[in-house]
């Protein structure tokens, strides 16, 4: 009677390999649904942009567009159509993956720049501290000044102690005492040395942080997708084959898509400003803050941004409203049932990957625990002795 093999059900390496195989199969469906979502978005982004422009112009000043000449209106429509077409070409999985790499490089450069500025500021503070210390050492305060008449002199010395000794000239002191005083270290010097050593330690820590934030490669670790267990298959995969890396890939695709739509919105706003249809241009950082939910907006039409600026225009009006175009995936999905269906599939993939990531973390902890227990239970001297005994038993005898 065969005994069922239950070892694989509790083997962390086997479970991690199964998760990797499941993730490889799921990545095919994720890529297909992501490509379908982008295809539907390419078909509807131009109509959504034109509808947002119509809503903005009709809400702000309906007669502003009619005051333009026929040539100017045709030129404006052609510019907006060209922008939407150029953006539609970039709404593919491969192009968004390339944008994700660029965004990671940009974030790495910003972190390196911030690290360099921090190091420069720290070095400047160290230099100023050393300069102030040198000035204090070269110009010590004069303690033997003649006190003005009527001044009160306070001292911590005991009144029952020995009387103070009058100071001697340097020429009257013995040679040994002068050498001892020259070699003595003042308490202030010890404090300065301690402060400079602390600053040196801080500088070394910031230097290490700068080295960490400046990796040598240009590809992210989750793009390289180094599996925890060696794989027997040598083929390359377009998507990561680990659950945590694939989940991070989906989140990065959403961020890259938001960046594409933000760039399109900013380009359309620039065209409106050039055509005289807008009075102000909102900066890109403000559009990013709205996308991240860091700024409160006013209710308006889809893909139209309305922000109340705190400007004192009068006694009754606390501010003024500024309108702009901001195309967002949430509002596109609200207006399109096709995009909603595709988004529901992607959300289901995201939910399943979240569960798989939890399982992956569990089995990785089990694997580390088993490895640590193996090293703990195995004495350090048992390996060479066992290998020596094994070699002596396997050695042929001379009989």
Can you tell me about this structure?
The protein has 399 residues and is mainly alpha-helical. It has a domain at 12-115 and 239-279 and 326-373. 65% of the residues lie in helices and 3% in strands. It contains twelve helices and two strands, in the order H-H-H-H-H-H-H-H-H-E-E-H-H-H. It has a two-stranded antiparallel ribbon. Helix 8 (243-275) crosses helix 9. The longest helix is centred in the first third of the chain and has 49 residues, at 12-60. The protein is flat and about 90 Å long. Residues 164-188, 208-236 and 387-399 have low confidence and may be disordered.
Brief summary:
With 399 residues, the protein is mainly alpha-helical.
Which structural class fits the helix and strand makeup? mainly alpha
Tally of separate helices: 12
Major β-sheet strand ordering: 1-2
Q: For the residues shown, what is the average pLDDT?
A: 75
The dominant shape is flat
Strand content: under 5%
For the structure shown, list the relevant keywords:
single chain, 399 residues, mainly alpha, two-stranded antiparallel ribbon, 2 strands, 3% strand
In terms of topology, how is this protein built?
Layout: H1 12-60, H2 62-66, H3 70-89, H4 93-138, H5 175-183, H6 187-212, H7 221-224, H8 243-275, H9 284-291, E1 304-309, E2 320-325, H10 329-335, H11 337-377, H12 382-394
């Amino acid at each position: 009677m065969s005994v069922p093999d239950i070892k694989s059900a509790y083997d962390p390496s086997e479970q991690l390999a199964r998760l990797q195989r499941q993730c490889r199969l799921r990545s095919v469906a994720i890529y297909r649904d992501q490509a379908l979502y982008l295809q539907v978005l390419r078909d509807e982004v131009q109509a959504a942009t034109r509808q947002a422009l119509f809503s903005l112009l009709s809400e702000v000043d309906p007669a502003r567009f009619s005051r333009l000449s026929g040539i100017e209106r045709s030129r404006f429509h052609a510019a907006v159509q060209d922008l939407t077409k150029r953006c539609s070409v970039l709404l593919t999985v491969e192009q968004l993956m390339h944008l994700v790499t660029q965004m990671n490089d940009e974030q790495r450069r910003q972190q390196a720049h911030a690290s360099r500025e921090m190091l420069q500021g720290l070095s400047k503070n160290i230099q100023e501290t050393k300069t102030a210390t040198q000035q204090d050492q070269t110009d010590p305060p004069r303690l033997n000044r003649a006190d003005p008449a009527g001044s009160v002199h306070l001292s911590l010395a005991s009144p029952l102690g020995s009387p103070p000794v009058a100071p001697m000239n340097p020429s009257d002191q013995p040679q040994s005492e002068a050498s001892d005083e020259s070699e003595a270290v003042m308490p202030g010097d010890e404090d300065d040395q301690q402060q400079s050593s602390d600053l040196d330690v801080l500088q070394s820590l910031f230097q290490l942080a700068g080295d960490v934030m400046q990796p040598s490669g240009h590809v992210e670790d989750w793009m390289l997708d180094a599996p925890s267990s060696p794989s027997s298959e040598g083929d390359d995969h377009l998507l990561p084959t680990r659950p945590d890396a694939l989940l991070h890939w989906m989140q990065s695709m959403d961020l890259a898509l938001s960046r594409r739509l933000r760039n399109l919105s900013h380009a359309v706003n620039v065209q409106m400003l050039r055509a005289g249809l807008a009075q102000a241009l909102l900066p890109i950082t403000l559009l990013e803050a709205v996308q991240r939910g860091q700024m409160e907006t006013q209710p308006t039409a889809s893909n139209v941004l309305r922000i109340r600026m705190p400007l004192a225009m009068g006694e009754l009006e606390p501010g003024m409203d500024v309108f702009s175009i901001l195309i967002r995936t949430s509002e596109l999905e609200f207006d399109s049932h096709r995009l909603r269906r595709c988004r529901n599939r992607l959300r289901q993939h995201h939910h399943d990957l979240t569960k798989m990531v939890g399982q992956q973390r569990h089995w990785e902890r089990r694997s580390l625990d088993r490895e640590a227990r193996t090293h703990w239970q195995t004495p350090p001297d048992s390996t060479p002795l066992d290998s020596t005994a094994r070699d002596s038993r396997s050695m042929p005898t001379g009989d």
